[in-house]
Each structure stands twice: as structure tokens, then as C-alpha cells.
């Protein structure tokens, strides 16, 4: 196993353990299948985002798409596919979507913070003038993890807004950003996260 894979494995264990300890939403007989499918969806989304990001390479080396040990998992793609799965699961099982995400979200920043060290060992996610973008994001996400120890409301919305802002500004110095007119693909998705976060706050306030 590569160091990258080991770090990801640790992140998964930390996230799963936290959810199982704090889960009061999903019935215990459905908890394992929920976590397994969430992991699968998130990995597929994360890999798909990376493949799109580095299409010039993967189009010439398609077999490498399956080589997860070599790195290449985009957190934005993982979040999007994870959200899609939770929406499907919540609707099918008649469990409020935000009840599920608010249980998961407090541990995600810590997992992201730890996971970025996998990028360090793979020598990736650097920016202009060799700036360690991975380290900037790791530190900022750890700060959010600490914030969540104090804040117990609007957690899903705060996560989306906070991470959206972080990713939006870090995209300016990332060397692997996909340009889309005057923004990057990641910045467009980041702005979408921010917008959705504010919509969620408005929704939660109107239902309290």
C-alpha cells in the first residue's frame, strides 16, 4: 500500500468511526450499507473529477484511471457525488437530508485536513512559485474542524460556504485549475457550494 492510500484509509476510518458514534438518524440496520455506498459514490466522483482535470494525460493513458494508488482524487467531485447519494438515500428512506449531512459534516474538515498530506507524499497540489496549496487547504480545513466543536447549527451550510470560499481563492494559484472563461471549473463549482450554503441557511431559518 502507498503512503497516499494509507492516509486515505486513515481518513475513512476516522470518518466512519465518528459517524457510527454520533449517528442518531439512520437506523442501525441500514448504517453499514449507507456508509459503504457513500464511500463508493464519493470515490467515483472524486476520481471522475480528477480524470476530467487531467484529461490530457488520462486520455492517453486510460488504464491509469484505475490506478488510485498513484493519487488523483478530487474532493469537489467526491462531495458532489456524495451529496447526490445522500439525496437519493434520504428520499428513499424518508430521512431528512440535512439531518444526515449535519451528522457527517463536523468530521469532514478533519478528514480533508489529514487527506491533504497524501498530496504532500505524492508531491502534488502545488501552485504558482511552488506554493504548497495542499498545506494551505489542510490548515484552513483543520481550523473549520475546530470551529465545528463550538458551532452546532447550520453545519452543512457553513461547511459549503467555508470550503467554497477556500477553494475559490486557492484556485487562483493552483497550477492544475481548468480554465472556463475568466474563472476555473473549480471556482464555478465553489460558487455553487456557496450559493447552496446560503439557500440552506434560509431554508433552516424558515423551518425553525
Q: Catalogue the unreliable spans.
A: none
Please provide the ordered H/E string of secondary-structure elements: HHHHHHHHEEH
Using the CA coordinates, give the radius of gyration.
17 Å
Distance between the termini: 48 Å
* Sheet with most strands: 2 strands, antiparallel
What oligomeric state do the depicted chains represent? Answer: single chain
Shape: globular
Question: What fraction strand?
Answer: under 5%
Residue share in helix = 55-70%
**Structure class:** mainly alpha
User: Largest beta sheet: what is the strand line-up?
Assistant: 1-2
- State the domain count: 1
Please give the number of β-strands: 2
Quote the average pLDDT.
89
Model description:
By secondary structure, this protein is mainly alpha-helical. The protein has one domain (3-206). 70% of the residues lie in helices and 2% in strands. The chain contains nine helices and two strands, in the order ααααααααββα. The protein has helices spanning 3-22, 28-53, 55-58, 75-93, 97-104, 108-121, 133-148, 155-170, 185-206, and strands spanning 179-180, 183-184. A two-stranded antiparallel ribbon has the order 1-2. A hairpin with a 2-residue loop joins strand 1 and strand 2 (183-184). Helix 1 (3-22) runs antiparallel to helix 6 (108-121), helix 6 (108-121) packs antiparallel against helix 7 (133-148) and helix 7 (133-148) packs antiparallel against helix 8. It starts with a helix and ends with a helix. The model has no long low-confidence stretch (mean pLDDT 89).
